[in-house]
TrEMBL record:
<keyword id="KW-0547">Nucleotide-binding</keyword>
<protein>
    <submittedName>
        <fullName>ATP-binding protein</fullName>
    </submittedName>
</protein>
<feature type="domain" description="AAA+ ATPase">
    <location>
        <begin position="427"/>
        <end position="559"/>
    </location>
</feature>
<dbReference type="GO" id="GO:0005524">
    <property type="term" value="F:ATP binding"/>
</dbReference>
<keyword id="KW-0067">ATP-binding</keyword>
<dbReference type="Pfam" id="PF22977">
    <property type="entry name" value="WHD"/>
</dbReference>
<dbReference type="InterPro" id="IPR003959">
    <property type="entry name" value="ATPase_AAA_core"/>
</dbReference>
<dbReference type="InterPro" id="IPR027417">
    <property type="entry name" value="P-loop_NTPase"/>
</dbReference>
<dbReference type="InterPro" id="IPR054472">
    <property type="entry name" value="WHD"/>
</dbReference>
<dbReference type="GO" id="GO:0016887">
    <property type="term" value="F:ATP hydrolysis activity"/>
</dbReference>
<dbReference type="InterPro" id="IPR003593">
    <property type="entry name" value="AAA+_ATPase"/>
</dbReference>
<dbReference type="Pfam" id="PF00004">
    <property type="entry name" value="AAA"/>
</dbReference>
């Protein structure tokens, strides 16, 4: 990502900056042969008063002396100008063409030894580095990020990858008068406040609120998250964050909603204006000078009202009140906060012919926007499976229907009928699906999600559990925080990875494993959607955990009648089938639904290759291969034969 430093002149700023650097490098080359008698002096200022080269801005930002500024120029020159590097090498600098500090002192005017101290700007801000043991003998090397900056390119330092994102102010029509909370933030910083926490009753402020602030102020944001806990690593990382904010003329946005050290360990080490985002229950620590700015509470009703207004602005013909009623359910389910999400949904419903059409369009548009956070953390499963597609005994089918009903009626029961009470604990719908592989656990989850019009995300618990203490909890927090935006159905595979029977706590790893399990249960119980855990081994699940799961559904291995139904449902209407297929013979083979699906698909490929309809012999060949893979015999009467 690049920050433009352009001026209004006809020549682009970057071209002028390049010419300026080339002229300074040439002047340095001329001074080197006779540096004792003729040191490098500051050249006359550029005639164009509206042009400020990147080096001059850098000097102002970090308080560089004239000598320190020219040392940085020299180090940039040997990195960008081969002729200058060659001249430095010939004149007794480093063999690779990089200058030493004594060489810089002999070449540049107004030298001072303390420019190389660790506390001085050049080293404190990591503008350059020393390649060598002794500072007086080491070669000076410009920091790569600073080299890019002086060249006019503002790419984020790679050492901050995964922790820092440069966020540009969005393009938006300027409001006649900014929101009151934005004016309060601006005034707080203007009066010398350097740390502001955004707060909102009911939910934590998020990215969309920050974008609104950036749009109103025209500033960039350096978004910081997932900082290291180790204080030895944290200090230099924060220094780089501070440097990034200075170079980008940006506000530091500290996101404490994920695994990041407390604010009281971070704020004292930053000099840039700091905007803090944190969940209401986050312990950020006592931080002197921290000021809170409260944002108006966003409610489903206010979101629906705003969406209706925007839809009318985009040409919707339905009355505002009818639109507001039509989109209310979608706004409550997906809680759109960003102007982009609301605008996209408003455009979608602007062409709706009636309230029902508007309802469907709003649901689809806001559902798509709600995926952004969770898509990066889990696998979204696309499926058109319905409950009618499942082949299960009546008891299991009834349980799945009960789960679907609770998912669809939770707002009425919890909110309208008051069952939510004063707390969220126990309000999440948790289900455990147990049974052999291929018995339909994932298909059942797909069917429930589709019936509710929600996305289904698969989370591999075995992959989420980390050997590093505390990392599992961080991984789970990211997933649930992202999922809260949509109430998506979460499918946790291999639940026994965390919910296995507990043994005696013998060391810190056992203790943290129990903490991680308790944390997952806590988040599931408070989650506003449905969380489904699956396991092939119900007996491996601790009974204490089972008591906290609302639904437990055992998926049995299908009997012969069920297998007959499963076989007949595998083939689409357009698939060509031979009349010789013997369904009862196929049903006698001991295969679960997932295996039957695999056999049908493999047989279809064999038939397609032969350019003939799918026949018994194709199914027999594919079935025997599947049984061999499972190390099972064909079953009574030999199963399927050619």
């Amino acid at each position: 990502m690049t920050v433009a430093l352009a001026s209004d002149t006809t020549v682009a700023w970057s071209e002028r900056n390049q010419r300026w650097l080339v002229s300074r490098f040439a002047a340095l080359r001329e001074c080197i042969p006779d540096r004792a008698a003729k040191p490098f002096r500051e050249m006359p200022e550029d005639d164009e008063q509206d042009f400020v080269p990147a080096l001059q801005r850098c000097a102002e930002l970090f308080g560089l002396s004239r000598f320190e500024r020219d040392v940085l120029l020299l180090c940039a020159g040997v990195a960008l100008d081969a002729g200058l590097a060659d001249a430095v090498a010939r004149a007794g600098g480093h063999a690779q063409g990089r200058p030493t500090f004594p060489f810089a002192m002999s070449l540049l005017e107004a030298p001072h030894w303390d420019a190389l101290s660790p506390q001085a700007p050049l080293r404190h801000w990591q503008l350059l580095h020393l390649d060598g043991a002794l500072p007086t003998e080491a070669a000076l090397r410009i920091d790569e990020r600073m080299l890019h900056y002086l060249s006019g390119v503002a790419a984020i330092d790679e050492r901050l990858d995964g922790m820092v994102e440069l966020v540009a102010p969005p393009d938006a029509e300027a409001e006649a008068e900014p929101a009151a909370w934005i004016a309060q933030v601006v005034a707080t910083f203007a009066m010398g406040g350097d740390c502001v926490q955004l707060q909102r009753t009911g939910e934590a402020p998020g990215r969309d609120d920050v974008l609104q602030l950036l749009a109103a102020t025209g500033r960039h944001g350096v978004w910081v998250r997932d900082l290291p806990e180790d204080p030895v690593v944290l200090a230099p990382t924060l220094r780089l964050v501070d440097r990034e904010a200075a170079l980008s003329a940006a506000l530091v946005v500290l996101d404490l909603r994920g695994p990041t050290p407390r604010l009281d360990r971070i704020a004292p080490q930053l000099r840039s204006p700091l905007l803090v985002l944190a969940a209401a229950d986050t312990d950020i620590g006592a931080t002197p000078g921290l000021r809170s700015v409260w944002l108006p509470a966003a409610t489903p009703a206010s979101r629906a009202r705003e969406l209706a207004v925007r839809a009318r602005r985009f040409g919707a013909s339905l009355p505002a009140e009818a639109l507001e009623t039509a989109v209310a359910e979608a706004c409550e389910q997906f809680a759109p906060g960003s102007g982009r999400a609301l605008d996209d949904a408003a455009r979608a419903i602007a062409g709706a012919g009636d309230a029902g059409d508007a309802r469907q369009r709003a649901w689809a548009a806001l559902r798509e926007h709600s995926r952004e956070g969770l898509d990066r953390l889990a696998q979204r499963i696309e499926s058109t499976t319905t409950l009618d597609d499942l082949v299960l005994p009546p008891a299991q089918a009834g349980l799945l229907a009960d789960i679907g009903r609770q998912l669809q009626q939770r707002r009425r029961v919890y909110r309208d009928w008051g069952f939510a009470g004063k707390g969220a604990r126990g309000l999440g719908i948790a289900a455990l699906f147990t049974g052999e592989s291929g018995t339909g656990k994932t298909m059942a989850a797909e069917a429930i999600a589709n019936a509710a019009g929600l996305d289904l995300y698969r989370i591999d618990l075995a992959g989420t559990v980390s050997k590093y203490i505390g990392e599992t909890e961080k991984n789970l927090r990211r997933i649930f925080d992202a999922a809260e935006a949509s109430g998506a159905v979460l499918l946790f595979d291999e639940a026994d990875a965390l919910f296995g029977k507990r043994s005696e706590v013998k060391d810190s790893h056992d203790r943290y494993a129990n903490i991680e399990t308790a944390y997952l249960l806590q988040r599931i119980e408070a989650y506003r959607g449905l969380a489904i855990l699956t396991t092939n081994m119900k007996g491996a699940i601790d009974k204490a955990f089972l008591r906290r799961i609302r639904f437990v559904v055992q998926f049995p291995f299908p009997d012969e009648a069920a297998r007959d139904a499963l076989w007949r449902r595998q083939f689409p209407a357009q698939a060509p089938l031979s009349e010789d297929i013997r369904w009862p013979s196929l049903a006698r083979m001991p295969l679960a639904g997932g295996n039957i699906r695999a056999v049908a698909l493999n047989a279809a490929f064999i038939a397609a290759h032969e350019d003939v309809p799918i026949a018994q012999r194709h199914l027999a060949a594919a079935a025997h291969a599947e049984l061999a893979k499972l190390e099972r015999s064909p079953g009574p009467q030999g199963g399927a034969h050619t």
